[in-house]
Amino acid sequence: MKVDLDQLCVNTIRTLAIDAVQKANSGHPGMPMGMADAAYVLWTRYLKHNPADPAWANRDRFVLSAGHGSMLLYSLLYLTGYELPLEELKRFRQWGSMTPGHPEYGEAPGVETTTGPLGQGFANGVGLALAERLLAAEFNRPGLEIVDHYTYAIVSDGDLMEGISHEAASLAGHLGLGKLIYLYDDNGITIEGSTDLAYSEDVAERFAAYGWHVQAVDGHDRDAIDVALAQAQVARDRPSLIMCRTHIGYGSPNKQDTAAAHGEPLGEEEVRRTKEALGWPPDAEFLVPDEALAHFRAALDRGNEAQSAWEALFGHYAAECPDLAAEWQRRLAGELPAGWQSFLPAFEPGSAAVATRAAGGKVLEALAPVVPELVGGSADLHPSTKTFLKSYKDIQAGAYGGRNLHFGVREHAMGGLMNGLALHGGLRPYGGTFLVFSDYMRPSIRLAALMGLPVVYVFTHDSIFVGEDGPTHQPVEQAASLRAIPNLAAIRPADARETAGAWAVALARSEGPTALLLSRQRLPVLAETDPEAVGRGGYVLAGDDDPQVILMATGSEVAVALEARDVLAGQGIAARVVSMPSWELFEAQPRKYREQVLPPAVTARLAVEAGVALGWDRYVGAAGATLTHDRFGASAPYKVLAEEFGFTAGAVAERARTLLE
Amino acid sequence: MKVDLDQLCVNTIRTLAIDAVQKANSGHPGMPMGMADAAYVLWTRYLKHNPADPAWANRDRFVLSAGHGSMLLYSLLYLTGYELPLEELKRFRQWGSMTPGHPEYGEAPGVETTTGPLGQGFANGVGLALAERLLAAEFNRPGLEIVDHYTYAIVSDGDLMEGISHEAASLAGHLGLGKLIYLYDDNGITIEGSTDLAYSEDVAERFAAYGWHVQAVDGHDRDAIDVALAQAQVARDRPSLIMCRTHIGYGSPNKQDTAAAHGEPLGEEEVRRTKEALGWPPDAEFLVPDEALAHFRAALDRGNEAQSAWEALFGHYAAECPDLAAEWQRRLAGELPAGWQSFLPAFEPGSAAVATRAAGGKVLEALAPVVPELVGGSADLHPSTKTFLKSYKDIQAGAYGGRNLHFGVREHAMGGLMNGLALHGGLRPYGGTFLVFSDYMRPSIRLAALMGLPVVYVFTHDSIFVGEDGPTHQPVEQAASLRAIPNLAAIRPADARETAGAWAVALARSEGPTALLLSRQRLPVLAETDPEAVGRGGYVLAGDDDPQVILMATGSEVAVALEARDVLAGQGIAARVVSMPSWELFEAQPRKYREQVLPPAVTARLAVEAGVALGWDRYVGAAGATLTHDRFGASAPYKVLAEEFGFTAGAVAERARTLLE
Questions:
Q1: Subunit contact A102:B480, Cβ cutoff 8 A
Q2: pLDDT tens across B522-536, in order?
Q3: Using one digit for the tens of pLDDT, what is the confidence trace for B211-266?
Q4: Predicted pLDDT of residue B2
Q5: What pLDDT is attached to residue A661?
Q6: For the sheet containing A240-245, what is the strand order?
Q7: For B311-365, how does the pLDDT look when each residue is reduced to its tens digit (9 = 90+)?
Q8: How far apart are CA A217 and CA A234, in angstroms?
Q9: According to the model, what pLDDT value does residue A343 have?
């Protein structure tokens, strides 16, 4: 079979995927084989990138939302000249390789986001495209458009079945993100078999309903794909979906168009037959024809040219707008503006009681002018979460100069978009909802933690003290389940002062996400709390050096513990009160410090928290106890709930006293 | 203003909602005011129900997916004659009342499901409608259609923005659920303001794309609503969406059509003005005109007639098909068939190693013929989760006689549908996905636990030992975060034998959901494990009465702990091995039993689990330690991961030995 250069290149992608999966004896060959044509056209004719500098700020972003097809991406990265040697493709899915089973942000250059959990990449792409528009509105000047790139993704049936894709697609249409272009691998096959088993919606009509520009092409007709991409670029007022009708496992005589091609190696015999069918030497492994490599590697020259042109443009920009240029560079470097901490509001001890959600809102309002990279919103709850910046405008289609996003009742998309906004660079996203609804966005929170993205979740209404809305709206297990996520700092501040400290920690944190757990109800502003100590996760609030009992608490229960200490003092019992806003941060302290706060000799310890006990045993020990809430809540005014469920100073003191008996 | 009887009734609904919210000084008046017309037409002209017997099996199901409008439902329940006295409406949102802030299953008769978390009720309704079709296919006989009812819901903008509504709507269209009829409260207002802020999709086109029958009406034109409901009933091949254009807070001179009407009391003055505008005595509170009440209460006679007619039909049915009738009664009573336990497969100790997911599949296959109420599937992963019943057919549109559901890549809808299937009665649903993706369906799991629904989650690929797929697919915090949910029994069996025991517990459990955490990798079938002991949550596997150290473990780490015991024995150290498949079940045991398993005197304790340590401190104590995995995983063959991350008998023994030093 005679093959032209394009075909040779496409088959190089295919056979690299086939070989890597076969060698690993694990992985997904079908998708790379099916989408090789479309990806080839995109990567060699449209994608603006420089393999020599994966961090070039104005590159197009490419997201492989169907992350199981990771070998497609690894092949393209290697072939176009990223620092990903062929040797690493041979170590696909092995310990310590740069080529894990699904693309992982930070493991190989050019991987823009971690994908695999379906639908997440779809939403990340919307965040990336939105970031481009926000930064363009802020930084571009006439004739000096330093922010100007597309965001592309390859999405699968699975991505489009997941609810997050609906939420994110609806938002992308609403926001008119015209530079967002998705190639949909419409291959008709899922793990259980034909997509007909579970998926018969009219995808084109659905995306048209969201306000997208929709095209359908033969996913193996490279010219048609080329034309469709050009058309998608022209449609600047709407995001684009290009439905590529493909054959999964393209070229495999026995497995093409079957679920068997999806998630397992073809098998040695079928690998040979497939290579024969593709006109490939059947015994060659990891074969990269010189002409193909040369053709792919032209990306280096093209990328270099493009980046040089952009750098020249940026030179003019820096000459014309030196302040903006400096700000751009600061923002892209992820450095906070000097002295930002001084703008944190100070809350006077003893001043009027204030809910920590309201205090959080004040902190955000105070920081917003100084930290312009802060951008965010809530999942249709800003009057409750206090996350609306009153001095700034909304962000809407065609009006990207605002600071306030309206995510709608779409927590999951909010989480996925926040990840995309953070991944782009130049922005520090925050997003608010009720703590109980953190469950709706948990898969995105996990990915933020896995990627180490410094996003900030504003989770208000943080306990049963939500009150009348009842158990569906009262978190009880959410604090514990957020504490379970590695690399997520969950902080539940005791009052307004600790809230300021918590925001300071969240902003200073560059290595992972932070969740702020804030109260609905008003809380006293305490003299004992220390904003600076929040960063240590736990500290002594009150009590002498030689206590008989330690009371530890978080959030709204801290004030109750302080009151209980007075009650105990009246009974001649010396109690220490420890505020424990963040276990994660406390665990990161040296053992010596932790033992100063919780002296091992004091074994009478009571933890007070209006949530499940899970995990508190680490701090209270076998001789201690927990005054927690280990069932669902109830609908009633919150003060009634405090009485009924025993979160009062009297009940706390009584429980502490019994510990000493 | 002269008002006719219909108008009087509708305004009775409105003013009850207004008054209850005002009296509670908390709640959502706007939705009941806006949807009163549509709800009135549905409840008085279409809904087949008997307020005197809320448990009548063949009643139409009504779901208030927009649960924040709970006063609409409470008003209707009281007015039509359910055992919900007016006094309880006056105690709206108060401690111990039958009228919590959001409708809660079990708190008031006629509440078919707990709603409030948006989108959940939408998915529950799809499950209810599917249950009707499944049971109809199984039990109906020509001329003896004992299962024949509609499922209605009121859904809101918020419901339709949530991703779960997309997943469930797509599935409902795919499954051709023609007896599902949803009224959409299209009021143009959300909490943050106009829906235009975030929501501009073409909802009619979107639902048409899913294969729904879509109509749009003036939501205050009762005749139009009447006609639309009739049309929706005629469209038997497709689910129906009736878009009701309404005015939120209808009748309020100053708050109608504003976000202010949504989530707070109107205020005393506005209450008066609204009543005046509605032609209502402005000072009357909780006024129920006699004519209105009489008209609503006709539901009792109608319901009695309908139920009597059905009971007569069932009498014929029982005469014609006595076995089926007996089976129907057993199923509706929620009783398992006698002797079902004897069909649990026995796995021989020492037989070939088998993954617990595969063992779970064998258990399911063995139970399916004996327990015909078992119905389920997976989120497009059945070849991996082993949840496909090979002897039974698929469930598809128009072919409801199968047992296998294909949920598609829609974990969240799966969770919501499972709740609906369980709520209907007559079925015991199960659903499978990878444990890491339990995060995608967590809000539905929480509601199953809150409602006490006996659904079974089959969560396979339960640890880093997923292997090559890498950290995105490797759960580390999921076991802990499931353990955090009250009333959910999470069980991680050690081998095939414990897997049989775990399924036995799950099926016998009637008061809440069960999550089975099953391995991808093969595990030895152990002589020491005891299927019967799984119900106690933890038990002694091996070791003498006076051990120096206790090794405790779950799932795949149990075999490692047993091996480690041999290593320690070789060093002269006596170790006890405890299997802890379920903390929830263990905590439910008497203290005496727990202390037999974990004698307080033995403080050298090591917990071994390939997941985060959170919560293990309760069992290992201050002198103990955890050999856990407190970070994300890595992509590599699982045996390599076991070595690299220290989950080997040698590493466990070494760690245990150091505890004794």
A1: no
A2: 999 999 999 999 999
A3: 999 999 999 999 999 999 999 999 999 999 999 999 999 999 999 999 999 999 99
A4: 47
A5: 87
A6: A61-64, A151-156, A180-186, A240-245, A213-218
A7: 999 999 999 999 999 999 999 999 999 999 999 999 999 999 999 999 999 999 9
A8: 17
A9: 98
Strands A549-553 and A539-542: unpaired
Distance from CA of A106 to the nearest CA of B (A): 13
Please confirm, yes or no, whether B511 is among the known catalytic residues.
no
Paired tokens of B176: 């051709």
Neighbours of A595 (CB within 10 A): 12
Q: What's the whole-model pTM score? A: 0.98
Predicted local distance difference test score (pLDDT) of residue A3? 59
In a 13 Å sphere around the CA of A159, the CA atoms on its Cβ side amount to 31
Q: ∠ CA(B538), CA(B540), CA(B546), 5° rounding?
A: 135
Q: Are strands A514-518 and B605-608 parallel, antiparallel or unpaired?
A: unpaired
Confidence at residue A545, expressed as pLDDT on a 0 to 100 scale: 84
Contact list in A for residue B471 (CB cut-off 8 A) is 100, 104, 450
pLDDT in tens, B411-429: 999 999 999 999 999 999 9
Angle between helices A120-139 and A442-451 (to 10 degrees): 70
Rg over alpha carbons for chain A, rounded to the nearest Å, is: 28
Residues from chain B that touch A163, judged by Cβ atoms under 8 A, are 162-167, 410, 412-413
Nearest chain B alpha carbon to A118: B409
In contact, A635 and B101? CB cutoff 8 Å: yes
CA terminus-to-terminus distance, chain B: 89
How many Cβ atoms from other residues are within 10 Å of residue B44's Cβ?
A: 20
ipTM of the complex: 0.98
Residue A526 to residue A320: CA distance in whole angstroms: 50
- Contact list in A for residue B164 (CB cut-off 8 A) is 163
Strand partners, A155: A184
A353 secondary structure, DSSP code:
P
Task: For residues B493 and B527, give the distance between their C-alpha atoms in angstroms, rounded to a whole number.
Answer: 14
Note whether B601 and B575 are within 8 A (CB). no
Q: Mutating which of A162, A194, A404, A450 best tests the B interface, going by the most B Cβ atoms within 10 A?
A: A162
Q: Which residues of A are catalytic?
A: 411
pLDDT for A380-404, tens place per residue?
999 999 999 999 999 999 999 999 9
Size of interface A-B (CB pairs under 8 A): 348
Per-residue pLDDT averaged across A635-650, rounded?
98
Instruction: Please list, in sequence order, all residues whose beta carbon lies within 8 angstroms of the beta carbon of residue A499, skipping any fewer than 6 positions away.
Output: A347, A356, A359, A360, A363, A493, A516, A518
| B205/A209 Cβ within 8 A | yes
Task: Print burial letters for B258-284: b (CB count within 10 Å at least 16), e (below 16).
Answer: bbbbbbbbbbeebbebbbebbebeeee
Q: Quick check: A487 and B631 CB within 8 A?
A: yes
* Surface-to-core class of residue B585, CB atoms within 10 Å of its CB (0-12 exposed, 13-18 middle, 19+ buried): buried
CA–CA distance, A385 with A367 (Å, rounded to integer): 16
DSSP string covering B351-388, please? SPPEEHHHHHHHHHHHHTTT-TTEEEEESS-HHHH---
What's the confidence (pLDDT) of residue B661? 87
Instruction: Please write the tens of the pLDDT for every residue from A257-309.
Output: 999 999 999 999 999 999 999 999 999 999 999 999 999 999 999 999 999 99
Q: What is the DSSP letter of A46?
A: I
* Residue of B411, B498, B557, B584 marked active site: B411
- When pLDDT is cut at 50, 70 and 90, the band that residue B301 belongs to is very high
Please give the share of chain B, as a percent, with pLDDT higher than 90.
Answer: 98
Strand duo A354-355 + A522-523: pairing: antiparallel
Rounded Cα distance between B472 and A67, Å, is 10
- Token digits of residue A401: 């100069």
